[in-house]
Backbone:
């Protein structure tokens, strides 16, 4: 007889990864279910084992862990080979072994929801293929908070990840996204590595039409959080400097 | 001298709106900041005043409201005229009056994050135009939870709202979304009124290619939550009946 399977539980992390300053109480941004679940899980698959241990220390401070941190199993997601879209399937089945043997397994990334703008989707896919129940717990998502705070169209939107870095390609992609936004009335969301925030803002202002609305959200859920939405014209007339050490979400909607 | 302005605070609601059965403890799904903020706000703009009062009763049970429910100001968002995309700007400025006079103003919808797959974006836009600070608080989003739990591409995705109801148009739209998904490798997310869940599933299975992956999530964050992801072929070989009284999120990714 097959033993009952454990679930794959997607555990959200806070959004203050890598942001200097006071570490907030995780209860401020994570619901009680998340903290309770994180405290009881003994097996984890993580984007990064070190930041997962840091997260679990914060959990332990408000809800004691079921087992000491040292005895927990924390396995890192395999990084896909350069150029490959996903890790080999064999690796993923190995990671799911605890769930196949009846133990709930947590999946966590460095910030926000796992498998959204982050690695992990291939593992979730492998879980579905193995008939392992997948449970996503509610937590902060910088993308959706930025979208809500932008005032841009929240009834139709797309997240397109990172833009190309090379100037000509980047300009072409920006114009392509603006055309798509105009045609479908769809808000286009993108992210950038923090030290390139200013460069992306500059490229957007250089290539977008004056009437297109552009929203930038920085450091959401932290004390430094801000969202500015204005036309490209308005941004140019009154520039805002962006921090180079805080993640930002950029959103555009063509007029 | 102008008085300091209040902020427009986007307050997430739970996802169990209209779902029969036990009402869970809101602390299970909402972080402490949300509950604390909701308890202190005296002025609200709401998708629906009645469900806002029900939400505030649940808040009051775990964190006493600063003022009695009867004395709170709760104003409903104007519904756009049939055919119009938005409410008149004058109405929106009127709603923002408390913030202009220095009082924080809450915006809340019937479920999930306001202004995402829900009304409210026009008010947020008016707030930006009036230099009112906009703060989005973290809460559950059925769209992002469904995306995370689907195992489909979370690095590129789009939410397209509702599909046309009429059969021919609906079929054409489904094929268009599948082509878009194939071309851009982009997960396409959509929602439906619960009593039409089965009809939308039937249309998706009728029009999508056998190898396209389809994910359906129902009742996320409630006890009845489930997510199934399979190829169209797999869904056809082993059908799952969908509930007609629980909101579902549908996601597709072409092979």
Residues:
């Amino acid at each position: 007889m097959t033993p009952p399977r454990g679930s794959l539980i997607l555990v959200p992390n806070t959004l203050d990864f890598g942001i200097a300053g006071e570490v907030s109480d995780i209860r401020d941004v994570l619901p009680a279910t998340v903290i309770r679940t994180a405290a009881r899980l003994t097996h984890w698959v993580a984007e990064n084992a070190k930041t997962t241990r840091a997260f679990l220390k914060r959990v332990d401070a408000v809800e004691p862990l079921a087992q000491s941190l040292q005895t927990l199993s924390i396995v890192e997601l395999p990084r896909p080979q350069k150029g490959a879209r996903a890790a080999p399937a064999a690796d993923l089945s190995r990671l799911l072994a605890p769930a196949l043997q009846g133990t709930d397994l947590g999946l966590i990334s460095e910030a926000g929801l796992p498998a959204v703008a982050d690695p992990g989707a291939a593992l979730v896919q492998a879980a579905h293929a193995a008939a392992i129940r997948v449970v996503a717990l509610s937590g902060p998502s910088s993308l959706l908070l930025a979208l809500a705070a932008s005032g841009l169209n929240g009834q139709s939107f797309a997240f397109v990840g990172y833009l190309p870095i090379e100037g000509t390609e980047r300009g072409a992609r920006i114009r392509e996204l603006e055309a798509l936004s105009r045609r479908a009335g769809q808000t286009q969301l993108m992210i950038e590595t923090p030290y390139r925030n200013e460069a992306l803002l500059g490229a957007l202002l250089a290539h977008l039409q004056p009437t297109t609305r552009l929203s930038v959200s920085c450091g959401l859920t932290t004390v430094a959080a801000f969202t500015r939405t204005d036309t490209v014209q308005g941004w140019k007339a009154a520039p805002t400097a962006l921090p180079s050490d805080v993640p930002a979400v950029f959103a555009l909607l063509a007029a």
Observations:
- Chain B touches chain A through 62 residues (CB under 8 Å).
- The two ends of chain B are 61 Å apart (CA to CA).
- DSSP finds nine helices and ten strands in chain B.
- Chain B has a mean pLDDT of 92.
